Inverse folding.
């Protein structure tokens, strides 16, 4: 199979390579219920040495810079309670944590979750966190620019490998909310 975006040697429908994914991501693919079929989610093998965005796009295709999204875990606090959420924005932007995220989650304070919290709560590797397979009940805030793309490059749950996911499929994830202005320059 040829990857729908980028220049990857190995591209396989995600349901055909569940053993390459972390348990929560594999479970999400296995139990996929969206209008976009699970076999449209594509796993591509990538070398963790080229994980830095600039090096990654140089190696796998310059067109990926505008089609890649970062998934970050945020901790929103209000009245002694903490809500964890995931935010997905284009890799050319930053998450508006103190504006859009804080207001959407009704928090007094919002910040990026610690690495230990992000990996411990998701069951994914740092640098590979993906919106596919997050814990039940988590809000998944997705920038509208991400949801509008035909395919988006996101993490696979591990540092090795990525998922190519239609933007429409990301917008259908459990807990997903598409927001304008989540990603800022």
């Amino acid at each position: 199979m040829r990857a729908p975006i980028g220049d990857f040697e190995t591209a396989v429908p995600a349901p055909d390579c569940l053993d390459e994914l972390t348990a929560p991501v594999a479970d999400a693919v296995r139990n996929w219920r969206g209008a976009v079929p699970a076999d449209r989610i594509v796993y591509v093998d990538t070398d963790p040495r080229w994980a830095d965005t600039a090096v990654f796009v140089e190696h796998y295709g310059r067109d990926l810079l505008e089609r890649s999204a970062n998934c970050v875990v945020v901790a929103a606090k209000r009245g002694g309670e903490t809500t964890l959420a995931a935010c997905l924005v284009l890799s050319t932007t930053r998450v508006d944590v103190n504006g859009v995220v804080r207001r959407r989650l009704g928090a007094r304070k919002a910040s990026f979750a610690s690495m230990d919290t992000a990996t411990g709560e998701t069951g994914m590797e740092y640098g590979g966190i993906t919106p596919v397979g997050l814990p039940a009940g988590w809000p998944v805030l997705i920038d509208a620019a991400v949801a509008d793309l035909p395919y988006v490059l996101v993490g696979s749950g591990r540092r090795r490998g990525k998922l190519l996911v239609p933007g429409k499929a990301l917008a259908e994830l459990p807990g997903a909310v598409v927001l304008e202005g989540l990603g800022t320059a």
Helices lie at 23-30, 53-60, 97-104, 115-122, 144-147, 167-171. The mean pLDDT is 94. The CA atoms of residues 76 and 105 lie 7 Å apart. The two ends are 35 Å apart (CA to CA).
